[in-house]
Amino acid sequence: MTALTLRLPDDKHLRLRAYASSRGTSVNRILDEITTLALVEFDAETRFALRAAAGTRKDKRGLQLLEKAMG
Question: What's the DSSP call for residue 25?
């Protein structure tokens, strides 16, 4: 596991501690959850971009297949 130093304004830190306390967890756990959500979003965007790139210039073939299927 890696340690990370995060500098926050005092008021933001107090609010984050209050948020964690209201959820019955630690600030570390809250930041871990937020990081997980950010990485899931990043992974989804990356997969979408890769799939979009793989489909580039295949639109004409797709339209031909649709026309063929419609008879």
Answer: S
